[in-house]
Amino acid sequence: MQVPKLWDETIDAHRRAVRDATLDAAAELVAEQGLRAVTMSRIAERTGIGRATLYKYFSDVEAVLAAWHERQVHGHMRQLAGLRDRGGSARARLDSVLEAYAFIQHEHHEGELTARLHQAPHMDHAQQHLREFIGDLIAEGAAAGDLRDDVAADELASFCLNALAGASSLPSKAAVRRLVAVARDGLRPPA
User: Fold this and answer.
1) What is the distance between the alpha carbons of residues 48 and 26, in angstroms, rounded to a whole number?
2) Residue 33: which domain range?
3) 79 C-beta neighbours (distance < 10 Å), count
4) What is the pLDDT along the chain (191 residues), one digit of tens a residue?
5) Is residue 153 helix, strand or coil?
6) Could you tell me the CATH number of the domain that includes residue 11?
7) Are residues 167 and 183 in the same domain?
């Protein structure tokens, strides 16, 4: 006898629902109380899912936080790719991407645990992908004469990402905007 496909879809849907509820609860706890406030007990309480069930999906709170962080990173990448893919000049799209990236850096920092999450393998892939698409925008802008072409686009992309990572320690949105302006100035064609 063959098990109906609906059963498989129901199980998959249930697994996704448990995973999503767990990650949503972790996100809420992080937003309300910071990364250190996330525990399996608090997630279970917030979701109404038993701790034993949570442990079937995630080995520990670190695994929950890693999955939550990966979901966050994918969301940020979608946001930045959306800005990159809008209409307009490469320079204008690059400006939008750089500013959004700087504000992401500014809004998402919290010490040692965040630093550990940023060492996860998904971060290497995301950083490489981001460097490539910023490099592509820079190359497109340089070809149009709007951005400098005397330095390789991939080097300029690395410069931008490293410079804008400093937004995490800035005290205000105005300071973030000034940092973005400095990075943009570094991309101007030489006189």
Assistant:
1) 13
2) 1-58
3) 14
4) 443 445 557 888 888 989 999 999 999 998 898 888 899 999 999 999 999 999 999 999 989 988 998 998 999 999 999 999 999 999 999 999 999 999 999 987 655 566 666 677 778 889 999 999 999 999 999 999 999 999 999 999 999 999 999 998 999 999 999 999 999 999 999 88
5) helix
6) 1.10.10.60
7) yes
